[in-house]
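Duplicate of #3305? Posting structure anyway:
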């Protein structure tokens, strides 16, 4: 039944999707089902849900065990409790696509452990995709921190990518994951040469390689920044990994090219110094990379073959004259854009500016000048202590994640704020993105049916990760093999609640797209 087109007589009178879905009349909700009697009402639900993907190429859904009993956002997936979102602003003109977030529960951020947060109803951490209304489309909880959920290309196909692991003193130790459109894990990326992949970067290249960051302790003279001569640093490492084989094709070590004296941090006793702190890597072109170092306030263009530094932008030894407003400090997430770069300018920890900015900078390599093209700031005057991102969208809009501040925003080309969403608690997302994504889960829709107090039944249906469901089609019959379509209702949020008075002893529900094509059907439930 999955993937087949619903016959025309089953989709006559499909209710038009509108913002006010409760205005649909009973007549429009009920369809001819060969005389079958069924009473139906659809209720909007803000429930959220998710699935767990392991490291294997499993083609089935695995349900993780929560650390504490959840508070029950929804009936179909009671074990999952993602944080709820608040829409602050939603105006016309947002770019197409869905919002990609990684809600995290770092110690001290909310003053709660993961278990306490779930118990108090504040949500789990993990990776999630939402629409403009803040309704979760897909959620996967994680017991460790997740970062960098985005859509990239691998072997010519779109994939979801993210990192998952532990964080120690701002450095990550974990793995990267690639998921296909069915949410199956198709590749796992680990660091090479004895190193673990760091949280800060997971960028795929057209050559089917992954650019990642890593850290390791290295002996160094740190007397110039207040430490011992025989001290140590956490050296930053950039690796290019062949995804299929795990082979390290390129490795760049910061101490080979950048001295400790370039850092803006000071040593503290005999503790290793995170003097460089790499936090983004991207392609400048096929032959060179852009590397951002938070603690030297510098963006480096490096040779992709030899590792030599081609130029430095910002910091103590900049090769460029920095124009008015084009300065940045403690920056994150540098990407090439047109004739320049985009930079998230944290300017904090410690504070160097009154608020953080997402910058578009023009880079004149010939004249060695950098100019400010545009700066995006939040009306709340947010000062982000670390993390953050800026993504330039195909229509000219900019999507900004505010890191430690619980906001994600979209700005139009004129700089106007047209979309703003936040976590209702002091949660955070390392970066935030908007991408077009089509998810077709291999698992079927989830259906739960409860008998109500007046002789009817309440049916709850959801399909975590399915991006194209517009309608739910209800089937009823006296056996699982004799089900007939009896009605269609509009999808309402992640989980749709439907009151039914069925004409048979079995019930099933299928998801339909906008054109009425059947995408998948739940397992029949005996009622």
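Output from current build:
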């Amino acid at each position: 039944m999955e993937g087949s087109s619903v016959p025309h007589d089953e989709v006559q009178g499909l209710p038009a999707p509108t913002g006010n879905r409760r205005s649909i009349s009973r007549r429009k909700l009920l369809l001819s089902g060969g005389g079958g009697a069924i009473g139906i009402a659809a209720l909007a639900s803000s429930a959220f849900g998710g699935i767990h993907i392991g490291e294997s190429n499993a083609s089935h859904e695995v349900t993780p065990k929560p650390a504490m009993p959840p508070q029950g956002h929804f009936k179909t997936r009671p074990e999952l409790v993602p944080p709820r979102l608040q829409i602050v602003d939603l105006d016309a003109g947002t770019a197409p696509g869905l919002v990609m977030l990684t809600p995290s529960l770092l110690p001290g951020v909310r003053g709660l452990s993961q278990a306490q947060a779930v118990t108090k109803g504040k949500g789990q951490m993990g990776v999630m995709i939402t629409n403009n209304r803040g309704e979760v489309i897909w959620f996967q909880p994680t017991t460790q921190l997740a970062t960098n959920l985005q859509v990239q290309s691998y072997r010519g196909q779109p994939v979801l990518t993210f990192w998952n692991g532990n964080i120690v003193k701002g450095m990550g130790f974990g793995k990267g994951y690639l998921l296909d459109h069915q949410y199956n894990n198709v590749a796992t990326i680990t660091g090479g040469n004895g190193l673990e992949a760091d949280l800060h970067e997971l960028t795929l290249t057209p050559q089917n390689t992954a650019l990642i960051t890593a850290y390791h302790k290295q002996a160094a003279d740190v007397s110039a920044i207040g430490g011992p001569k025989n001290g140590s640093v956490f050296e930053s490492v950039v690796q290019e990994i062949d995804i299929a084989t795990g082979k390290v094709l390129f490795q760049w070590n910061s101490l080979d090219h950048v001295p400790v004296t370039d850092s803006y941090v000071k040593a503290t006793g005999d503790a290793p110094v995170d003097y460089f702190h790499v936090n983004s890597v991207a392609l400048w072109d096929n032959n060179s990379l852009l590397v951002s170092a938070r603690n030297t306030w510098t963006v480096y263009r490096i040779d992709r073959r030899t590792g030599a530094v081609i130029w430095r932008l910002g910091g103590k030894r900049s090769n460029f004259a920095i124009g008015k407003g084009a300065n940045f400090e403690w920056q994150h997430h540098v990407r090439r854009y047109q004739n320049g770069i985009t930079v998230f300018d944290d300017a904090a920890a410690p504070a160097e500016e009154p608020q953080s900015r997402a910058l578009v900078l023009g880079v004149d390599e010939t004249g060695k000048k950098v100019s400010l093209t545009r700066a995006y700031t939040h009306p709340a005057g947010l000062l982000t202590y670390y993390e953050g991102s800026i993504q330039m969208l195909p229509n000219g809009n900019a999507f900004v994640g505010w890191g430690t501040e619980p906001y994600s925003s979209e700005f139009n080309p004129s700089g106007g704020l047209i979309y703003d969403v936040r976590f209702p608690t002091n949660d955070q997302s390392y970066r935030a993105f908007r991408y077009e994504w089509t998810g077709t889960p291999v698992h079927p829709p989830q259906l739960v049916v409860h008998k109500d107090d007046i002789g009817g039944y309440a049916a709850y249906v959801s399909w975590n990760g399915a991006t194209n469901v517009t309608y739910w089609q209800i089937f009823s019959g006296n056996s699982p093999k004799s089900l007939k379509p009896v009605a269609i209702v509009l999808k309402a949020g992640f989980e749709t609640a439907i009151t039914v008075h069925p004409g048979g002893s079995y019930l099933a529900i299928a998801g339909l797209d906008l054109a009425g094509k059947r995408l998948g059907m739940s397992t029949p439930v005996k009622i």
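Confirmed duplicate; merging threads. Residues 1-10, 19-71 have pLDDT under 50 and may be disordered. The two ends are 22 Å apart (CA to CA).
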